[in-house]
Amino acid sequence: MKKLWHWIALCAVLLTVGGLAGCSNQSVAKRDVLSADMKSKQITWGVKSDTRLFGLENIRTGKLEGFEIDLAKAMTKEILGKDGKCVFVPVTSGTRVPLLKNGNIDAIMATMTITPDRAKQVDFTHSYFDAGQSLLVKKGSPIKNIQDLNHKGAVILGVSGSNSVKNVAKIAPKARVLQLSDYAQAMTALKSKQGQALTTDNGILYGMASENPGYEVVGGNFTKEPYGIAVNKNQQRFRNKLNWALARLEKNGTYNRLLLKWFGNVKGFNYQEMKR
Amino acid sequence: MQNFIDAYSWVNVRFLLQGLWITIEISVASIICSFIIGTLLGIIRYEKIHYVSAIVGFIIDLIRNLPLLLIIFFTYFGLPNIGIKPEIIPAAIMALTIFESAMVAEIVRSGILSIDYGQTEGALANGLTKWQALRLIVLPQAIKNMLPALVSQFISLVKDTSLATIIVLPELMYHAQIIYGQNTNYIIPMFVALAVMYFIVCYSLSLLARYLDHHMA
Amino acid sequence: MLEIISSQWPSLLSGLWNTILCSVIALIGSLIIGTFFALLEISKYKVIRIIGSVYVEVFRNIPLLVIAMAFFLIVPMYFTKISGFTAGTIGLTLYTSAFIAETVRAGINSVEAGQLEGALANGLTTGQAMRYIILPQAFKVIIPPLGNQFINLVKNSSVLAFVAGFDLMYEGNMIANDTLQTIPTYFIVGIMYLIITLPLSYYMRHLEKKLA
User: What is its main location (chain C) (predicted)?
Assistant: First the structure.
């Protein structure tokens, strides 16, 4: 008899949990992010906290710094006015989409490439940064481009949930890809020779190379990785507003000023090509 | 050697201490919550209330047999489905509380079971209600018996906070990662610092338990 | 949820296999190391006792994640190449061995002191007495706690996800990131963990009752 109750309890629990897992989040889909944010005078952004040049926590001040952080601040001011506030929630490539879908954050600006697969799950604005995927290797490494890694035994490091690991599986299918949880881990793993090369977008790699003099970016860009701001489906008004703000910042020179501020001194980065 | 001197600059050490503070805050909050909830659940399971005890017991078993990482994911990504949208720190506290409460419940239940049932019978014969007997006679003795198990569970809790780096909880481990991610020469100094800091916190917790054990006897 | 299972089952199964493999290796390894340090802890000589308890206290009071990451990042930098799976398994072994040492020590203490004396009086050396008389009895006492340690091992092996160890949790993260079906994926992963741990934990409880 007691056993039977155990089984009934099992089914009840599984059904409840399954039900919770299955039911989609109605309230997030219905909520109009733009009007809610206009009212509360703040936008909650999901940003990187471990990526040099884009979004990195400053050890001295504990504040987040980077191109994306500055751009998010500028866009918030553009949309909400001078007294608009930004709230930053640090995300990783693995956590950003669930957090957006759950409504913890209003928008993702976290080195996220616009891809057709992702566009089925979230909506993207226009690109705000045109990156391309490349390789970071130790100086003097025999690896000159991605094809050098397309053999058995080659190990490429990447960050889980990023688009670059998917690309590399297509371009160099014979190599083994190790996916780590964030860029700090991946860079450390490269330094401890867990793999021959680290792959991700050139902007991020330039940031790593500038901090680690023994390493260099090689092989040029083998894919195009336009970064977009992601918002939930059915938030066209919010997305249009973000596009509008981005266009205004590009036109009034703020965009170029921020680009120059963060990437002006980065070796290998072509400002003339990237400015808008 | 130079790496060690550079790595332990005041700026870095302060950043680590900020992380340690978050670790301690989260640990203390989760210890208090999971002690209260765990004790209640343990009593419910022990009392054999129809259906309720069986279901509570089964949920406890489910949680106890899952990795904490999964509980963290379910809390941070799953709770919003039922309308709760925790930020990172509350989410971490909730996840740890859910997991550790289940552990504590089991410790409490076996602690109560370790007390001779004759004591309860005696108390009932002397006119105490069942609840009074539990609260005044059984629980105080049980808590003394289960102190070692409870403390090692709470030490595990402090260590387990490090797993919440996966949802970018700004605790000790994460802050160390930020530092050595920016300068990989600091890896060894940072791991030494991590080991020392966690050791100090956890070991003083077990010393405290030993002290309590002596003075309660 | 079903489409995740049908499209991803090879990686889920290989993850499950790695999780089990890592847990079994770590159990055997930590049983050997743990018994060794338990014997050190009950030695006649103070210096050896101190060595034993320092080892146990150090590994009991440092997070598993710190130990595993240290092996993953530091060992290849200065010594030799090491895969995430190996680094994670070594970390898991060392971490668990501290807990097993405590369990074994309690088991040895539960065997009456008179037995050791009797064995010594019959002309056995201390080592022989340990090997033939004390340890076999001690291991009987500690089978249930060892079973519980194995359950902990299976759960703790999820730390391999941090060091790219291709275990169940790592594969789960990959699938969740790939399909963006976060909760259903982790739900399946959870069920797979429960398939190993839940029957084991009920069996251990049954065993405890039987022995008590």
Answer: membrane
